[in-house]
Amino acid sequence: MRSRPHDDRDPAGGFHSIRAVETPLLEEFSVERWTEPVDASWSTATTPGVAESLRSLALRADSSSRPVDVGMLWTELCSRRCRIADYFFSETSCFIALAPALAVSPFDRKLTRKKLDVLERVLLRGGQKPVAVELGIAPSTVAIIAGSCLRAMGLDCGASRAPLPLALSVHALHQRTELREARLSHVTHQGRSYSVLSTPRPERCLARELSPAEYAVTRLLIEGRSHAQISALRHTSVRTVANQLAAAFHKLGVSGRCELVCRLVASEFESKPKLATPATPRLAPAANVMNA
Predict the structure, then answer these.
(1) For 288, phi and psi rounded to 5 degrees?
(2) Among 185, 223, 200, CA closest to 30
(3) Can you tell me the distance from the alpha carbon of 123 to that of 207, in angstroms, rounded to the nearest whole number?
(4) Under DSSP, is residue 38 helix (H, G, I), strand (E, B) or coil?
(5) Which of 15, 42, 113, 289 could form a disulfide with 117 if both were Cys (CB 3.0 to 4.6 A apart)?
(6) How far apart are CA 260 and CA 125, in angstroms?
(7) Where are the domains of the chain?
(8) pLDDT tens for residues 243-259?
(9) 110 to each of 25, 154, 198, how far by Cα in Å?
(10) Which residues have C-beta within 8 Å of that of residue 235, sequence separation ≥ 6?
């Protein structure tokens, strides 16, 4: 795999340095393999039967996948050539399925460079409040901007529930993680072709920090599940889930899922006895996002 040159004028790596990744590297995703673009509003998440069968194909194809740099995921999404069709977890891996986007989409106007910079900062900082302070805007404004970017990428969630591989990809491009390797496979399902990226789940190290119940609910939260979904899966009350997560957050020294995911992807936990707060990555000064 060739190295990814960053813009020498911005060694800290702002959004414009991410866009400087060379186009030939994106060929790993083989956009030409895709046969039929899909509308930005279409997602397997809204069609459970489709999602189940696509996930089954993705799991089988993963055994014959090839290694790629996970940083390519963020670059590819920012290029607007593809959108996220589905994401899911197995016991050991995270999966994200990409489908080609339409050549022209009204969603593209939400993926402006300035707004993507806000989402990038949230994924690097591990929360909306630090970014709001950094940019001098309200946390609600940060949430709105980040959410609109994620919807344009094909997701129906806020930044606090963004897929773990997305945060991992941003950290990889900023050289804030050693967990850079991902696996890439291609599947065809119901006349559409997908590129499927898989990464190892990084939270095994939490088992030694948490009780079995706390570890179980934390893993489900990392998957992006709500308190109600976790309580249904574990046959407990929502209050019990909330208490277990609060206890886990206290032990780990985090404020919520977004910060936990940030720390998970930013450190080598297997060799560390406890979670350590990563050094805050420096970004280029942001332009006025309200005028994006």
Answers:
(1) -70, 105
(2) 185
(3) 24
(4) strand
(5) 15
(6) 11
(7) 15-201, 203-271
(8) 999 999 999 999 999 99
(9) 25, 12, 26
(10) none
Write b or e for each residue in 266-290: b if 16 or more Cβ atoms lie within 10 A of its Cβ, otherwise e: bbebeeeeebeebeebebbebeebe
- Which tokens hold the place of 237? 């009350």
Topology (CATH) of 203-271: Arc Repressor Mutant, subunit A (1.10.10)
37 token code pair: 């673009």
- Ordered strands of the 181-189 beta sheet: 66-69, 181-189, 192-200, 93-100, 82-89
In degrees rounded to 5, what are phi and psi of residue 240?
-65, -45
* Cα–Cα distance for residue pair 257/262, rounded to 1 Å: 8
**What phi and psi, each to the nearest 5 degrees, are found at residue 124?**
-80, -35
Cβ 180 vs Cβ 169: under 8 Å: no
Q: What is the percent of the chain with per-residue pLDDT over 70, rounded to a whole number?
A: 71
How far apart are the C-alpha atoms of 253 and 255, rounded to whole Å? 7
CA 231 to CA 239: how far, in whole Å? 9
Cβ-based neighbours of 104, under 8 Å, separated by 6 or more: none
Q: Residue 78 is encoded by which pair of tokens?
A: 């920012």
- Measured CA to CA in angstroms, residue 54 lies from 97, 139, 204 at distances of 9, 36, 26
* Helix residue spans in the chain (DSSP H): 15-18, 48-61, 72-78, 113-125, 128-135, 139-152, 164-173, 212-222, 227-234, 238-252, 257-266
The tokens describing 87, both together, are 């994401």
Query: Can you tell me which residue has the tokens 């001098």?
Result: 136
pLDDT tens digits along 120-169:
999 999 999 999 999 999 999 999 999 999 999 999 999 999 999 999 99
Measure the CA–CA gap between 239 and 216, rounded to whole angstroms: 15
CA distance 213 to 245: 9
Compute the distance between CA of residue 122 and CA of residue 131 in angstroms, rounded to an integer: 6
